[in-house]
Amino acid sequence: MPASHHRARQSALPAPARAAQAAYTRHLATGAHTRRGMSLHVAWAAGRANLIGEHTDYNLGWVLPVALDRVIALVGAPSPEPVAHLYSVHHRRAISFALTAEALTDDAQQAILPYWARYVRGVWRELLALDALPPLDYAAGFSAAIAGDVPVGGGLSSSAALEVAAATFAQALGAPALPPLMVAQLCQRAEQQSVGVRVGIMDPAASCLGRAGHAILLDCRSLVYEYVPVNLPDLALAVYDTRVPHSLASTGYNERRSQCEQAVALLAPSLQRETPRREIASLRDITTDDLARHGATLPDVLLRRARHVVSENARTLAAVEALRAGDGATFGALLYASHASLRDDYAVSCPELDAVVEIARETPGVLGARMMGAGFGGNALALIQRQALPAFERRLAAEYPQRAGREGVLRVCHIGGAPQFARIAQR
Ligand code: GLA
Q1: Best of 199, 257, 379 to mutate for ligand 1, by most ligand atoms within 8 A of CB?
Q2: What is the DSSP track for 208-254?
Q3: Max Cα separation, the chain?
Q4: Is the distance from the beta carbon of residue 285 to the nearest atom of ligand 1 less than 6 Å?
Q5: Residue 272 and residue 280 in contact, taking contact as beta carbons nearer than 8 Å
Q6: What is the pLDDT of residues 181-239, one digit of tens each?
Q7: CA of 58 to the centre of ligand 1 (A)
Q8: Which end of the chain has the smaller Cβ count within 10 Å, N or C?
């Protein structure tokens, strides 16, 4: 479903939109840049949980995320001068930056901004490059307050949610509607440029394509996707926030990505000797059998990285079959197998995430669990029989702090929908 435009009733707004509206009134509405009496624009977009298919997106394989019903919202108004005035409720901070073409393409002006402002600026820069900015006579600039209930830095893609919300806000200000995956790609570029990490397309794609009650099976090579109903009535999906802050920049993310590229470069010649003209452009093109025949020619660390990606692609497709069959037990077993592979072969887990998965294993009624997202902190995902949720929560509360030396938090996941924008009356 593309972003939809309507005049929102207050009750139809997600809580972060109401929080952003209150912050707008308090921190931005009095500024000279805002004309009194105008109605406000609101846009929001969801964070994501990834059911399975981890570190496969940039290897052009498959991912299976869901959008969450947790969102980041922007509420604001256009302004005639080419400046963005932002207020972040989470960071309790106001920031302004110039939006002229000259300013947006000047990297030095990005370097002085905090990440959250870079994401919004990066989206505007990408829209400029696509010639898809709001009309200058209406919105050369804008002011907007930002609020969200996607935990920041927790591995539920608050940054992608903010980027997609910013792109949707641009649409609210009159920018041309773009196809959802084009929005995802421009947000991916905005993120890469803002953080200096070569992230894949999964997070913004999940936010752009979200559909209530469904997971999104995305082929990251063709960008063909299909919706898979998540119909497990007695089961719940939950995420456990380890409270180990994860920052992409420090997770060895770029290193993993280049190790995958090295593995492909080393394997391609032997595979092509066997089958001339076979195309081997990424680990997506390599099978478990290929690795069994030629894996031993790789340095051990590259073999392990490749083995994770190749097996994770197979697990993702198997998980889709399990989901379609309503087979929670198989789905859960695939989650545990994914965790072992991410921990042992891809080496992106950490003791705290491992502790959560071990506690899950020891709790009757938990069918599967694994670390989720880039790794080294953030959230673990678990699939649980609904009636076992309270026991799991008690067990985590009792054991996680002992094993991890800190408190975590369990949240049940509800699957959310696509980005939206609307107009609201100014209070
Ligand atoms: C982060 C990136 C995604 C993806 C995951 C790992 O969330 O932003 O593109 O690579 O890590 O699956």
Answers
A1: 199
A2: HH--TTEEEEEETTT--EEEEE---TTEEEEEEE------GGGTTHH
A3: 71
A4: no
A5: yes
A6: 999 999 999 999 999 999 999 999 999 999 999 999 999 999 999 999 999 999 999 99
A7: 8
A8: C
